[in-house]
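can u pls check wat happens w/ 3-phosphoglyceric acid
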Amino acid sequence: MKYWALPASWRIEAMARPVILIPVKPFAQGKSRLAGVMDEAAREDLARRLFAHVLAQAKQVADVLVVSRDEDALAQARAAGAMALRETCAGHNPALAQALLKLDRMARAPVLIVSSDLPLLNAQDLRAMLAPPMGVSVMIAADTAGQGTNALYLAHPAILALRFGPGSRAAHEREAARAGLGCRVIRREGLARDLDVPEDLPILLSRA
Ligand SMILES: Nc1nc2c(ncn2[C@@H]2O[C@H](COP(=O)(O)OP(=O)(O)OP(=O)(O)O)[C@@H](O)[C@H]2O)c(=O)[nH]1
Ligand SMILES: O=C(O)[C@H](O)COP(=O)(O)O
């Protein structure tokens, strides 16, 4: 069938370019679980560098939207050519919900939510997350423990209730099942290795 012979609503979805959505906690508040081994300035610097890395990888792959209440993070996003959204409802899930609402109004394009603390992330990881198998509308990149969600692909912005927080991998799977959506869990090192606790810090050496 010719492209222009498709129903109009399908055409819009087929044209819609995916967006990578990066939530960023204020740099000075992030990485609080490293407080026992790094002072405030070092944690802030680390959070800033991790975000810069994720942003650079994401920009190679798709349009990017950053949601944050940190003006520096928003400025860094704009300087890299990304869209920036000031968070009005503080918190991981509320900020993402705000961003998804905006994306849903812009276009019903696929969204890939990616954590800003993935030191081994590369563009291939992101491309893999943006290529779901037929019939799959939700893809979850689990953390190494299989408990958290480090990246979440959504076929469109309003498809799933967000459940970031402890046990989010299982919670996102449950939400997908409840909504009758095809769902896959992906395990790739670049997506799985986040940097949360002191035991994760040796990852940085492998990037040195
Ligand atoms: N916009 C926004 N992003 C958040 C918020 N809280 C967490 N995030 C982001 O969500 C992703 C996962 O966060 P966490 O792994 O909990 O990282 P963190 O909050 O820096 O680490 P801890 O302070 O140790 O909990 C990262 O991209 C964070 O920047 C928030 O309140 N607002
Ligand atoms: O799974 C999640 O909700 C996020 O990745 C945050 O989880 P974490 O606090 O274990 O990093």
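The longest strand covers residues 19-24.
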